[in-house]
Design goal:
3 domains; SH3 type barrels; alpha+beta; membrane; five-stranded antiparallel sheet; stress response; MscS_beta-dom_sf; cell membrane; Mechanosensing system component YbdG; 422 residues
């Protein structure tokens, strides 16, 4: 740079012209040097690094390239050059150095942010990421670095020690607590959620308060994203999963069975004792033959032992069509290929109501897939609705318009016949 000054002075130019011309040439040379350095770092160094990473067997190398970690770091080269040549302009050296350092800090923060995102992407490739997500922690670390970077930039620009600013932050702690309330609550909630394994990415959760019913697709510092089954996205505050209740269906999914709990309502007026004809018919049913033979033997032994007169069907023990129907349902489910054989299976009566006698099926399918579960459940009840009349039972249903119309037509026909006979 001194050589440029001497060269211009030897040309016997005006000192003022030499001063400005020299400064212009210096700026242009420094700018050219920055452009060359930036070109070398981006076009040569970055390309070499990219080729090495792409040819390596390391799977996560591409993730670092996708986040442009090295490219963002390369922006620091021109700033270092400008800082190194700041002494060339003594009158502006302090300002140039401060601006260069500020730019270096900004580039460093951008680089750290990209690196942290790349680390999160790499971590997601492991199965443990579904159990212990670290996105919330990454965001906290990012906030810490951003805060430190802003403090360093301000202290650099005003020429004071960062400790002075840090001491002033103590007085602003109440304001910071208010500003970062959601982040702090989210941090604590994130630690509890992951530490207690309350929710993972991929879990099916249900939270009616927030209209959430679907799979967790992301857990961040402030929010948990849930993709509902209608493909909408619900954002739930992280701390809401700690303060409010929610249903996590992971236990059902990992158990290998999904509960089937539904009732079949029987018209109580169709319940009766089994006749000999009915028993002869039931004993030919595949799922009932053993049951009928065993029960008939037990009933005969009981009635003979207690010398019960069976001329009146009220006396002693006897089979009923509803009892035989329950036994049929139980045996049918035990032999159904869609029912889990190692989980609870029972057929029970619930309290009768104005809708009839509920026969509840409580069992588990051997698949947790929604479509398979609904298919198995529908197949079972299709069959039960069809076979109920074979047991002399009627499934309860409130009168419909067709029922009322049929009743009206029958009443009219009977009235017409009565008038004619009169």
């Amino acid at each position: 740079m001194q050589f440029i000054n001497n060269l211009l002075l030897d040309m016997e130019l005006d000192p003022i012209v030499v001063k400005y011309l020299s400064a212009t040439i210096k700026v242009l040379l420094i700018g050219l040097l920055c452009i060359i350095a930036n070109f070398i770092s981006k076009r040569i160094v970055i390309r070499v690094i990219t080729r090495v990473v792409m040819n390596s067997k390391v799977k996560w190398g591409k993730m670092i390239l996708d986040r442009q970690v090295f490219r963002k770091l390369s922006h620091i080269v021109p700033a270092i050059i400008i800082y190194s040549f700041a002494s060339t302009f003594p009158n502006y050296q302090s300002v140039i150095e401060k601006l260069a350092v500020t730019y270096i800090i900004i580039v460093g923060l951008v680089f750290i942010q990209s690196l942290l995102n790349a680390i999160n992407d790499i971590y997601k490739t492991f199965e443990i990421s579904k159990v212990k997500p670290i996105k919330g922690y990454i965001q906290v670390i990012n906030i810490i670095f951003m805060t430190i970077g802003i403090i360093l930039m301000i202290s650099n620009l005003i020429g004071e020690s960062p400790l002075i600013l840090l001491s002033g932050i103590g007085a602003l702690s109440a304001v910071l607590m208010l500003v970062f309330k959601d982040s702090l609550l989210g941090l604590v909630a994130g630690i509890q959620l992951t530490g207690n394994d309350m929710v993972r990415v991929g879990d099916w959760i249900e939270m009616p308060k927030y209209g959430a019913d679907g799979d967790v697709i992301d857990i961040s510092l402030n929010t948990v994203q849930v993709q509902n089954f209608d493909k909408t996205i619900t954002m739930i505050p992280s701390y809401a999963l700690i303060s409010d209740s929610f249903i996590n269906w992971r236990g059902m999914q990992s158990s290998g069975g999904r509960r089937l709990k539904r009732s079949l309502y029987i018209d109580t007026s169709s319940i009766k004792f089994c006749t000999e004809e009915m028993i002869d018919k039931f004993i030919k049913v595949h799922y009932l033959s053993d049951y009928i033979i065993q029960k008939e033997r037990e009933i005969a032994e009981y009635n003979a032992k207690n010398q019960i007169n069976r001329d009146n069907p009220v006396n002693g023990r006897a089979l009923t069509n509803i009892g035989v129907f329950r036994a049929y349902i139980s045996n049918y489910l035990k032999n159904h290929e869609g029912i889990h054989k190692n989980m609870t299976l029972m057929v029970r009566q619930l309290e009768p109501s104005e809708h009839g006698l509920p026969i509840e099926i409580y069992a588990f399918t051997n698949s947790v897939e929604w479509a398979v579960y609904e298919t198995v459940q529908s197949d079972i009840f299709d069959h039960l609705f069809a076979v109920a009349p074979e047991f002399g039972l009627r499934v309860f249903q409130n009168p419909s318009g067709a029922d009322l119309r049929t009743f009206a037509e029958e009443s009219s026909s009977k009235a017409l016949v009565g008038e004619r006979s009169y």
